[in-house]
Specification:
mainly alpha; 3 helices; elongated
Length: about 80
Amino acid sequence: MRLGLLETVGVAGSLVFAIPLGIYAVERMLGGETVVGGAFLAVAVLMVLLPKYLTTPGDLPGMAAERAVEGAVADTEESEEE
């Protein structure tokens, strides 16, 4: 899985906030508060994973352009084969 520059910066930004929250979650879990620690750990994991797999309104123009290019390339390849 290769990430572009902006995706890498986005993941790094998420990690800046998720790592301290994850450390706090582990401390709570080791301190006996397993439910609270588990909840914080789940939030920390979601902070990193959701931006990668969730489609946001900012992603839609790029997705539309990608589909248009794929359609144009597919049409060109089909006409060259004939």
